[in-house]
Design brief:
- The chain has 205 residues and is low in regular secondary structure.
- Helices cover 0% and strands 0% of the residues.
- The radius of gyration is 17 Å and the shape is elongated.
- The N and C termini lie far apart (56 Å).
Length: 205
């Protein structure tokens, strides 16, 4: 039986490297340092970047479908328009990262730190975001339909115009969240304290 060959770039120091447009599908970059690297339009489908350091890196327009990125450091990284469909981002640090127009449908983001992240007009349908920290995040116009946000913190998050239809917000923290024109149709708010949340302009049909 033939074993598929995978490019192994694990534990390398690639800080500031120019990898724009590179095709690294299926590559292993576990524990590598890619801080401030130029990774615009990179192809990393099915790649492994577990525990990699990508702080301040630019991955705009990248393709990372089904990539394994658990516990990676992506603080302040630029992932605008990046495709992360079904990617594994459990416990990843995306604090202050920009994911505007990114596609994260079916992605695994359990316990991820996405505080103050920019997710405007991002697609997060049917993603797994239980116990995710989205404190102060910008989710304006985002599509979060059918996503699991059990126990997540959305305190101070801006969800203006977001589609939350069918979302599970069981036990979530919504204090100070902005929900103007947000679609809350069939949202599960069991055990969620909404006393300090203005729902008067949300859509609840």
């Amino acid at each position: 039986m033939t074993t598929a060959w995978r490019l192994d770039l694990s534990k390398l120091n690639l800080r500031g490297a120019n990898l724009a447009g590179c095709h690294l599908n299926g590559a292993t970059l576990d524990d590598s340092t890619l801080a401030e690297a130029n990774m615009v339009d990179i192809h990393l489908n099915d790649a492994s970047l577990r525990r990699a350091t990508l702080r301040g890196a630019t991955l705009e327009g990248g393709r990372l479908k089904r990539a394994s990125i658990q516990r990676a450091d992506l603080r302040e990284a630029n992932l605008d328009s990046t495709v992360l469909v079904e990617a594994n981002l459990r416990q990843v640090n995306l604090r202050k990262a920009s994911l505007a127009n990114a596609v994260l449908d079916g992605a695994f983001l359990s316990e991820a730190d996405m505080a103050q992240a920019r997710l405007s007009v991002a697609s997060l349908t049917r993603a797994f975001m239980d116990y995710c920290d989205l404190t102060g995040a910008d989710l304006t116009g985002a599509n979060v339909e059918g996503t699991d946000l059990t126990g997540a913190s959305l305190a101070g998050a801006d969800l203006t115009g977001a589609n939350l239809a069918g979302t599970c917000l069981r036990g979530a923290e919504l204090t100070g969240a902005i929900l103007i024109y947000a679609d809350l149709t069939d949202v599960d708010l069991t055990a969620t304290d909404t006393r300090e949340v203005d729902l008067s302009r949300a859509i609840r049909s």
